[in-house]
Design a protein that fits this description.
Helix content is 35%, strand content 18%. It contains four helices and five strands; from the N terminus they run αααβββββα. Helix 3 crosses helix 4. It is flat.
Length: 185
């Protein structure tokens, strides 16, 4: 009898965990229509859902969600594409360039670190750090972190590109929702 009770408790706990894990994050009520049909339409038009009639699309390649699907990540790599990369970790949310010199002054180099704090395209989503290395000789170098206009300009450039990528993705995923009525098809 105690074994049966333990099994029942485990089953109930499992169902509770499954039910709780299926709950998504709460949405912003100001951005979502209160009518369920309008909400479904909006989600499907923005590509946040699935349609049963798309399951039989043969010959169409799969949708791959790599790092290039993240607008901030893609915009950051595109912005600093002229620099050699030292470390790139999508799952860790960081991009670190190698020391870069434009060739005009071989004694000065720059290194950029971009850390992603969120996937949302917004001003506080990125932590950008720029380091300068100034060397008098090969072995005598001074490294310092710089703040100011260059950090702000780099952040602004990344956010502008990310916003463009986000809009392009939204436009690409937009498909008008045509509600079928019972008896159609």
């Amino acid at each position: 009898m105690p074994k049966l009770r333990n099994i029942a408790i485990l089953l109930v706990a499992g169902f509770v965990l499954i039910a709780l894990s299926s709950c998504g994050p709460a949405g912003d009520a100001r951005k979502n229509p209160p009518d369920p049909k309008a909400r479904v339409k909006k989600n499907l038009e923005e590509g946040r859902g699935f349609r049963l009639n798309n399951l039989n699309d043969k010959g169409k390649g799969g949708d791959f969600l790599f790092a290039s699907a993240n607008e901030l990540w893609k915009a950051s790599l595109d912005t600093i594409d002229f620099m050699p990369l030292s470390s790139v970790n999508y799952s860790g949310g960081i991009i670190i360039t190698d020391w870069y010199s434009d060739g005009e002054n071989i004694n000065e180099s720059i290194k950029i670190s971009i850390r992603f704090l969120t996937n949302e395209v917004r001003a506080d989503a990125l932590d950008v750090k720029i380091f300068y290395k100034n060397c008098n000789q090969v072995t005598n170098c001074k490294i310092s972190q710089k703040t100011g206009t260059l950090v702000a300009e780099l952040k602004k450039e990344i956010l502008n590109k990310a916003a463009i990528y986000q809009k392009e993705k939204k436009d690409k995923n937009f498909k008008p929702y045509i509600m079928s009525t019972p008896g159609d098809g």
